[in-house]
Each structure stands twice: as structure tokens, then as C-alpha cells.
């Protein structure tokens, strides 16, 4: 996903002196036991990008989950419009400051370690749920 995103980002058209993109991908598995009854598992996956622009001394941001070229361009234009709208309220002009240049990649630790099975997870949750005192109301 990163290489196509780099190509789409390079093709964006902007009036800003500087623009950047932050890509985030997150997945999750949520399990619960309520009153000693297992709830259905919930799985989620989120992907998106945050675009930052520096336009006329003002920085503004816009986020999107549409990672197509058109979606990224729309978010970039939204950030530019936001920079124009908030310019009169800016506390200081950032033109003299260097733009952020940091690059980073983070991956949660132990991602390659095998995760316990659903049965094992529910067993642990059931044990903990059984320890909760009953509310007789």
C-alpha cells in the first residue's frame, strides 16, 4: 500500500509552500463477556491519511479514508481551504520555521508472535467475568 500511496502523493497539485501526508493503518479484535455470556467478536480495520499544508504562513490539516488519487486531492484542497479560513485567526506566522521533516514507522511489538486463539481468549474472559460479584437488583 505504501508505494502506490507515495505515487499518488507525488502527483497531488497544491498551492501550499509545503504539504505532507501521514498514513495510518490499524486493525483490532475486540472480545467481551458480559454477565458470564460471551458476546460476538468484533473485528475492525481502519486506514486513512492526514494531509498537512502550509499556506501563507498557516498550517492546516484534513483527513480522509479515501486513499484514491481523487480522495487525497480532495483532502489536500480541504486543508488548503481551512488554512485560508483560519489565517486571520492565526497566532503566529510559521513561514520562518522549517517544516517538519521527521519520518517514522511504527509497528506494535510482538506482531509476529502467535496470538492466542479465540477459544483461549474467551476462556480467560469467562474466568474474569465469573469473579465479578452478581448484582441482584
Automatic annotation (TrEMBL):
Keyword Hydrolase among UniProt keywords: yes
Membrane-traversing stretches: none
InterPro entries noted in UniProt: Metalloprtase-TldD/E_N, Peptidase_U62_metallo, TldD/PmbA_N, TldD/PmbA_sf
UniProt keyword Hydrolase, yes or no: yes
Record GO terms (molecular function): metallopeptidase activity
One GO term (biological process): proteolysis
GO cellular component, one term: cytosol
Superkingdom in the source lineage: Bacteria
Metalloprotease TldD/E N-terminal domain segment(s): 21-83
SUPFAM superfamilies: Putative modulator of DNA gyrase, PmbA/TldD (SSF111283)
Record-stated family: Belongs to the peptidase U62 family.
UniProt name for this protein: TldD/PmbA family protein
Organism: Pseudomonas aeruginosa
